Amino acid sequence: MKRKVVLFVLVIIANLVNGQELDPLESKNKEAQTIWVDSILKSMSIDEKIGQLFMIQAYSNRNDEHEKYIKNMLTKYHVGNLIFMQGTPEKQVLLNNKYQATAKVPLLIGFDGEWGLDMRLKKAYRFPWNMTLGAITDNKLLEETGKRIGEHCKRVGIHINFAPVVDINTNPNNPIIGNRSFGESKENVTEKAIAFTKGMQSVGVLANAKHFPGHGDTATDSHKTLPTVNFTEQRLDSIELYPYKKMFKAGVSSVMVAHLSMPQLEQNIELPSSLSKTIVTDLLQTKLGFKGLVITDGLNMKGAANYNTPASINLATFLAGNDLLLIPQDIPGTINLFKEAILKNELTEERINHSVSKILKAKFLAGLANYKPISIDSLQQDLHRPKDNVLHRRLIKKAITVVKNDTENLPIQNLETKKIAYVSLGNAKGNDFFKMLKNYAKVDQVSDKHLSVLNQKLKKYTTVIVGFHKSNKHPWKGYKFTNKELVWLQEISRNNNVILTVFASPYSLLKVKSFTNIKTVVVSYQNSKLSQELTAQALFGAFKTQGKLPVSIHDTFKVGQGIVVNDLDVLEYTIPEEVGVSSEKLKIIDKRIDTILKKRMAPGGQVLIARNGKVFYHKSFGYHTLSKKRKVKKTDIYDLASLTKILASLPMIMKAEEDKKISLFSSLGDVLPRYSKSNKDTLLLKEILSHYGRLRSWIPFYLETKDSITGENSLQYYRKRKSKEFNIKVAKNLYLAKSYRDTIYKHIVDSEQRERPGYKYSDLGYYIFKEIIERKYKRPLNKLANEMFYSSLGAYRMTYLPLKKFKKSQIVPTEKDSYYRNQLVHGYVHDMGAAMLGGVGGHAGLFANANDVAKIMQMYLQKGSYGGKKYFEEETIEKFNKRYYAHKKVRRGLGFDKPQIRPQEKPTCGCVSDKSFGHSGFTGTYTWADPESGILYVFLSNRIYPTMRNRGLVRSNMRTKIQQDIQDAILH
Predict the structure, then answer these.
(1) For residue 300, what are the contacts with CB-CB under 8 A and spacing of at least 6?
(2) This prediction's pTM
């Protein structure tokens, strides 16, 4: 009676569902397909036909015995299909070609590549898990993912990829599906699966919807036992079967039938669904009208294997209505049993022909009628393409989900008011997350074995970022918080402003009892390097967060919940192709760097290149010195020399001009009284900024402080120890008389001007501007620049007087000075005049790494805005980035250097726009930004090591050659 009820219900279901009208195995060239299929089928013996029903495991990481075994199965038992398992792409291609050459009929090659070839193969590409993809709202990206995975499959000779998983994961405790599912929403799962399928089948790789009728609400693993799905027919129809009905209409090529006990559909509760005619034939093919290839789940799995002998199971699955038997055991015994069944009229040859015809149609559809061996040339390049990396980044960015953002913690901004700590929980590493966080602000990693001590350490921080990191090895790895971690999380959150970032399954949040004290919750789904880096960027507003939870977390966070957090105009860190630049063409920069090192143009350095606010090249190279004891790190800071002019003095001059404390048209005599009766009284400030003020290029003040007889630093001016009278620290154990500061300024006032007007680069103007700024704001230049710019920009590695903030090991030395300081200049400004001002000059004295230089330059490119803060009006940037004396052949703007006017000048490669701007520095530094191309370029080095006579970098024009290389690498 119960069985009749079930069948009656199935009939009702069939009436409610439009059967699959299309045949997903039918080729566009139907006539050629029919001819090919019929010709092969007619030529086959019964043994060969039976062999076509099997897809057996082939490994590319096993020995020659395994290869012999496979070839024997192909020749002796006529096995028609292989599923490749563990190994490498290279070995798989070689074996694929061998096996195809051995087979009489081309082999249909299958593979489990749900997230790409990495699921089985080493050195292969890995896309995100389905749960991660389930958080993405743009299904076009899912289609593109399916296409890329299909292309990878095709490249190694795979014809059918057993993906996507369409199980609706309504059971958080599901041990085998979980992260492999797109989530718990039937609509979302279906849309994602259809898009993925469309993409993969568009390149000729057959897709597979699995695991029919639905493995999403099980609490056991069918690899180990027979799970039970005990729901009403109405529930099964409305939830589990929902994606299949939609996918059949969308043309999915095949379905994989799971090993499940389904009492409401099959009265024999011990009979796996894969062996049930009621499920495989009556429901799947008759009622739902599926005409594609019906494939069993692996028949080596305990969910099926425990039912009977292997041969009996194989026959039963075929009699149930399956076409292709996946990983059948005991092939010889199965063939014999099939033939016995034919003799007993339990099985007909027509039934076999039906499935063999479908398999052959699938082979034709996969291109096997015109099979060609797979080339191994450039295999790794083809499987790791830049465009795959671009897509991968887009997927992760679009998936990151903010589910709570109280007090609007995100994006993190107003950095001048923040003190940030990072606490790591979980059993996996978060190093890439932490490193990327430090690209944006000063972030300290804080830890302790004792919770009380940890909380004490965290008291001084305004924001605590807690990263929960779990293994990213595969989607089945554990994702739960330990009880200890749950306690720590609550206690840390009770006492601090916490941003919780979860690099694991969203189900990990199920054990968190309360989110009341956790102000912000971000789900990143995976603990991959890319996920860590992009999440760190998202926290600081590098891009908008748009992900939506694919599953619910109790009643606290609903499925589909996700807060859009808008981006700020801060730097993003990416790869060249994402900004239209060729990574292949950029390799010449690496070669130029090798030349710099080999020819000792500099011991080392840093190069950063960005486009449209996205850093796509950021490398450190070489060592601090020629002794090669300390490698250069991206965080190490360099003496910027004259870059100080546009990174410290110029922003303060701009601000003073906006604050109406100065006018560019003011004369120097009006601004500084000491110049009112000098030969410079009528100089306009804009003339000085344009290097058109007839000032001397520089004055070697230090020479005057030397003993005229001995050549040593005179005791009249210097002491080895600091005192009230000698308190200007020039270098280690070298203090200048405080009175000499006024002497420097007097020398500038009294200095002769050049007789002829015209362009002459001069440092003296920036001594003058330093004095103007400090008088107007009544604060030292170094403190003004930090308070008004660096701290809010997150440029915490940009500073004057670096030894007050950083360890010596983090500062790159400049020169072995034998003419003034008589020591290795390390941690002190190299420029003698700036050193004599105590290390803070308007023209020199600033130290930074390339990353922080880029922040200010990007702020200029963004017309005065960065990180959600407006530093200048657009008009101010335009005003200063303008030539006022171009008619006099002066290429300079106000403070900014600009491209050459005269042919003999070479401030740039000659390949940048006239709107571009930048500056170079004596120590081997350079930065340039171009509003038209969006390119920002920073080059830092200590080319004056061991001495300033080392002019190889200057003579070779290597900095501007790299600038040309950047332009040449732009694709669009």
Answers:
(1) 57, 327, 329
(2) 0.94
Beta bridge partners of 469: 503
pLDDT tens for each residue of 262-319: 999 989 998 999 999 999 999 999 999 999 999 999 999 876 767 789 999 999 999 9
* Amino acid present at 283: L
Contact between 503 and 526 under an 8 Å Cβ cutoff? The reply is: yes
Identify the H or E element spanning 503: strand 498-503
Alpha carbon distances (Å) from 44 to 37, 331, 337:
11, 18, 19
Length of the chain in residues, anyone? 972
For residue 940, report the phi and psi dihedrals to the nearest 5 degrees: -120, 140
Q: Is the pLDDT score of 16 beyond 60?
A: no
Task: Name the CA radius of gyration of the chain, rounded.
Answer: 36
Which of 951, 930, 926, 952 is closest to 940 using CA atoms? Answer: 926
Q: How many CB atoms lie within 10 A of CB 647?
A: 26
In 186-241, which residue ranges form alpha helices assigned H by DSSP? 186-201, 233-235
Whole-angstrom distance, CA of residue 952 vs CA of residue 955? 5
Question: How large is the average pLDDT for residues 750-766?
Answer: 93
Strand partners, 522: 402, 501
> SS3 for 381?
helix
Distance of CA 331 to the CA centre of its chain: 46
- Report whether 844 contacts 798 (CB < 8 A): no
DSSP codes of every residue in 114-180: BTBGGGTBTT---PPPHHHHTT-S-HHHHHHHHHHHHHHHHHTT--EE---B------TT-SSSGGG
* Beta pairing partners, 938: 608, 927
pLDDT tens for each residue of 729-753: 999 999 999 999 999 999 999 999 9
Pair 735, 722: CB distance under 8 Å = yes
Torsion angle (degrees, nearest 10) of CA 180, 185, 191, 195: -10
- What does 806-846 look like in DSSP terms, one character per residue? S-GGGB----EESSSS-EE--SS-S-HHHHHTTS--SSS--
Q: How far apart are CA 945 and CA 959, in angstroms?
A: 17
AA letter at 33: Q
Residue 12 has pLDDT above 50, yes or no: no
Cβ–Cβ < 8 Å for 357, 292: no
**pLDDT (tens digit per residue) in 944-953:** 999 999 999 9
Identity of residue 5 = V
> Among candidates 166, 180, 322, which has minimal Cα distance to 247?
166
Short-list 939, 942, 964, CA closest to 952: 942
Are 813 and 715 in contact by the 8 Å Cβ rule? The answer is no
Is residue 209 a contact partner of residue 193, using CB atoms and an 8 Å limit?
yes
Closest CA to 651 of 776, 786, 835, 829: 786
* Local confidence band at 3 (pLDDT 50, 70, 90 cut-offs): very low
d(Cα 190, Cα 185) in Å, to the nearest integer? 8
Angle between helices 740-750 and 764-777 (to 10 degrees): 120
Name the β-bridge partners of 869. Answer: 866
Tell me the DSSP string of 299-358.
TTSHHHHTTS-HHHHHHHHHHHT-SBEES-S-HHHHHHHHHHHHHTTSS-HHHHHHHHHH
At residue 230 the predicted structure's pLDDT band, cuts being 50, 70 and 90, is: confident
Q: What is the pLDDT of residues 883-911, one digit of tens each?
A: 999 999 999 999 999 999 998 899 999 99
The CB-side HSE value for 38 (13 A sphere, CA atoms) comes to 6
| pLDDT tens readout for residues 841-883 | 999 999 999 999 999 999 999 999 999 999 999 999 999 999 9
Higher pLDDT, residue 220 or 566: 566
